[in-house]
Design goal:
Number of helices: 21
Oligomer: single chain
CATH topology of one domain: 434 Repressor (Amino-terminal Domain)
Number of strands: 0
Strand content: under 5%
Shape: globular
Helix content: over 70%
Radius of gyration: 25 Å
Order of helices and strands: HHHHHHHHHHHHHHHHHHHHH
Structural class: mainly alpha
CATH class of one domain: Mainly Alpha
Largest sheet: none
């Protein structure tokens, strides 16, 4: 099974999707909204630029009433790809065994036929243990651009899509393993694939860092953000580099390092550059506003919020590596900023808008907005409602094993007690401890 053998299957699947969509009278955007994806995902699938996951095809088959035709075409392509992968592994295994046999006969170097990279440099085989490592990382040809596009990038996207479906503790080991894979490939990459793999390491390290932060592991989070920053030097995706750095700025602010976080947020905006998609610039400005508000720099925070709204009004789609950011999510950042600027009435209104707009699948973000709303309600004298909102947030954070979220609840309990409501604060602490235990 060669790469060329896959082309007709890919084309059939893409053409079938486009034909069924036209027959149903749906635009790409219309189909995407019906199955919970972005228009760009439908577009790239129809142009054969990439093949989405099985979840996409299950939804498309149902909405387009394809009676299983899309699923059968996808299954045929998946089976053909697996056959090609197995054949490549078998070929690499045979070559590796030949190099091991040559080493065991006393050869200092593998034969040129068994182990020469495309660049012409012999592979360094130190012994059977080294040669027995995975062929992609320690032997065989260098990773190709096709390998990155067809096998590595889809894995990176899959982990990203699982964030709203799996707790961080469940997801982190898999993301960590993927990071080791892409980092190992980057170490062996030639010039043609180095930038693409650098972007994969940058995104995966940033994602793993955020998961570690959610689990309360600040030490590993710091190391991973440093790994991401190093990968940004290899990648040519400035917008992605700024995006990951923006998360680092938020993490610093959550740790109470507001001035340092504000500095990193400013760097993130500059790093992304004006050529980044408007939605990326909108999010970076919004998070910058949130960090500035935490640092007590009110006028600058409000100016950043205005800058975010202007960028968002320019329209455009989110890049593949970015989470959705729209006016509802901007409302959550606006509410968080106004709360930190001691404007609780306006903050409550913005946070109410955010909760109305945020989808139910964004459970942790909704819980964060509820907790901010609890702070706002407490400041206007509605202690009972504040405690209720915080209690709801506890259930969500505990259900997702979010250590960072439960710590935020504990901080709110301290605030509730300091405001003269020790019984409600004690009840909230007991609720959090019961889940954490």
């Amino acid at each position: 099974m060669t790469v060329e053998d896959l082309v007709p299957l890919e084309q059939t699947l893409a053409d079938l999707l486009a034909a069924l969509r036209d027959q149903a009278g749906l635009t790409q955007d219309g189909l995407a909204k019906r199955i919970g994806y972005r228009r760009s995902t439908v577009g790239t699938a129809e142009r054969r630029q990439r093949v989405p996951s099985e979840h996409f095809w299950v939804g498309a088959d149902a909405v387009l009433r394809a009676d299983g035709r899309l699923l059968r075409a996808y299954a045929q392509l998946t089976q053909a790809r697996e056959q090609r992968r197995q054949a490549a592994l078998a070929e690499a295994r045979a070559a590796r065994e030949a190099r091991v046999a040559a080493w065991q006969k006393g050869h200092d170097k593998p034969s040129p036929e068994a182990g020469v990279e495309p660049a012409g440099r012999p592979l360094a085989v130190e012994g059977p243990a080294q040669a027995a490592m995975d062929p992609v990382v320690s032997g065989g040809p260098r990773p190709t651009l096709r390998l990155v596009e067809e096998d590595v990038d889809p894995l990176t996207r899959r982990y990203r899509s699982l964030y709203h479906r799996l707790p961080s503790a469940v997801l982190l080991p898999a993301v960590w393993g993927h990071l080791q894979l892409v980092d190992g490939l980057l170490a062996r990459a030639g010039d043609q694939t180095r930038r693409s793999l650098g972007s994969a390491v940058l995104e995966t390290a940033g994602f793993a860092a955020w998961l570690c932060g959610d689990l309360g592991d600040g030490v590993r989070m710091l190391r991973l953000y440093r790994t991401a920053q190093a990968a940004a030097e290899v990648s040519d995706d400035r917008a992605l580099a700024g995006y990951v750095r923006g998360f680092w700025a938020l993490a610093l602010a959550e740790r109470g390092e507001h001035l340092r976080g504000a500095g990193e947020a400013e760097i993130a905006e500059r790093q992304a550059g004006r050529s980044a998609a408007p939605v990326v610039l909108a999010w970076l400005a919004a998070l910058h506003a949130r960090v500035l508000a935490g640092a007590g720099r009110g006028p600058e925070a409000l100016a950043a919020l205005a800058r975010s709204e202007r960028a968002l009004n320019r329209g455009g789609e989110c890049p593949e590596w970015m989470f959705e950011f729209d006016h509802g999510r901007l409302a959550a950042y606006t509410g968080a900023c106004l709360l930190r600027l001691d404007r609780p009435v306006e903050a409550a209104a913005a946070l109410g808008d955010a909760l109305a707009a945020l989808p139910q699948t964004c459970a942790r973000r909704r819980a964060e907005a509820r907790l901010d709303l609890a702070h706002a309600r407490l400041r206007v004298g509605e202690a009972d409602e504040a405690a209720r909102l915080a209690g709801t947030a506890v259930e969500t954070f505990a259900g997702w094993n979010s250590v960072a979220g439960l710590r935020r609840v504990a901080t709110f309990a301290d605030t509730l007690a300091a405001a003269g409501h020790p019984v409600a604060a004690g009840s909230l602490r007991e609720q959090a401890l019961a889940h954490a235990g």
